[in-house]
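Structure first, sequence second, as always.
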């Protein structure tokens, strides 16, 4: 079996991740931050260690500014619903995932003004258009760090500079890049970074988070869920302390134990080495697929402008047929269709059919990529 669906979720998880989750359940199964007994204290220590690991990975000064959520979607919704009010203006791009577009469309119906800047047909974002879209009422600019459809990377440093120059806040959707591309939040002072734990950070499903950068005054951001935090229990009002303000209810301790182990595993391999490996695989995929008659690769040609994700179509064949044959005849597992990102597919010209998406991971080998390319060649013939 060749697993090329890491953009959906990474698999297999490192043994260290599984072990950390087993250890949590067997040795630290208390409710973190609630009771004062040893199992609760140990659970709290493991959750805090995961916070520290994430803070170190993104060079965040204060680990308490890492807010754990269920996934990137939850983190994005927290910013959108917590920050925006009727009359505010938001700028985003035509390459976004539905994790961004659906809450934005709902907010638009409730009076938030929305500008969607169109990207080019390979996913390239025109920074000039972002700047021209910003008005005096623009409160937030939201950009996908990398497309989950074609891998195109967006220039988040420049977007941050432009938005901040005009007094707007910046939310980066790093669902596809956390653990894959180096991100330094001291060097790039964006305001909010949403990440997911189960893709490039090799944690389990049900983990993710929002990083609120140091300069953001959290009085601006209302929580979307309120409830018990284990702290300041004498008050019926939600506490303002971080991360409790945004983390009500029992956290996913077992998942966060796995996430902490995943982040440490990524750190030990080194993000630069991971990036170099994925670029090499993306190069092989691009060259191999583009050389097959009838195969059309959608997205950037240059691998330094993308993650390892490569999307393609085969002339005269439904993507579902290609995906089904890859799985059944060749053991190649990938994702076909619209990848929860209809706007991106409209931009790339692949709506409504979608594409076949190959997404290698850290443990994918060159040989596996060669086998997958050969399988596409046979199907295209
Ligand atoms: C670009 C992008 N944003 C957001 C998400 C949502 O991530 P999650 O499923 O962890 O909520 C995904 C997941 O595929 C994604 O690729």
């Amino acid at each position: 079996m060749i697993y090329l669906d890491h953009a959906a979720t990474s698999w297999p998880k490192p043994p260290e991740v599984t072990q950390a989750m087993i250890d949590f359940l067997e040795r630290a199964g208390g409710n973190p931050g609630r009771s004062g007994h040893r199992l609760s204290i140990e659970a709290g220590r493991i959750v805090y260690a995961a916070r520290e690991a994430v803070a170190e990975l993104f060079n965040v000064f204060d680990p308490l500014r890492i807010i754990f959520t269920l996934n990137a979607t939850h983190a994005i919704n927290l910013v959108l619903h917590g920050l925006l009010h009727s009359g505010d203006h938001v700028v985003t791009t035509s390459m976004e995932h539905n994790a961004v577009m659906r809450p934005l469309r709902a907010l638009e119906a409730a009076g938030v003004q929305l500008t969607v800047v169109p990207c080019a047909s390979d996913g390239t974002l025109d920074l000039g258009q972002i700047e021209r879209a910003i008005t005096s009422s623009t409160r937030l600019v939201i950009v996908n760090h990398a497309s989950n459809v074609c891998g195109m990377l967006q220039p988040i440093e420049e977007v941050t500079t432009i938005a901040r120059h005009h007094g707007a806040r910046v939310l980066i959707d790093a669902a596809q890049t956390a653990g894959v591309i180096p991100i330094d939040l001291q060097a790039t002072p964006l305001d909010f970074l949403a990440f997911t734990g189960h893709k490039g950070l090799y944690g389990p499903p049900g983990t993710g988070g929002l990083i609120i950068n140091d300069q953001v005054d959290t009085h601006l951001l209302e929580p979307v869920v309120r409830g018990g935090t284990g702290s300041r229990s004498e008050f019926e009002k939600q506490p303002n302390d971080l991360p409790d303000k945004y983390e009500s209810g029992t956290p996913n301790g077992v998942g966060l134990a796995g996430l902490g182990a995943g982040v440490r595993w990524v750190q030990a391999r080194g993000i630069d080495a991971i990036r170099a490996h994925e670029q090499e695989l993306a190069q092989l995929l691009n060259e191999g697929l583009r050389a097959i008659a009838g195969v059309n690769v959608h997205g950037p040609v240059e691998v330094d402008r993308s993650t390892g994700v490569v999307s393609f179509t085969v002339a005269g064949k439904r993507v579902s047929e290609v995906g089904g044959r890859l799985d059944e005849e060749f053991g190649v597992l990938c994702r076909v269709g619209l990848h929860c990102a209809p706007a991106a597919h409209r931009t790339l010209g692949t709506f409504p059919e979608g594409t076949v998406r190959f997404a290698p991971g850290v443990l994918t080998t060159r040989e596996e990529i060669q086998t997958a390319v050969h399988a596409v060649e046979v199907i295209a013939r």
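Margin note: The first helix runs from residue 15 to 27.
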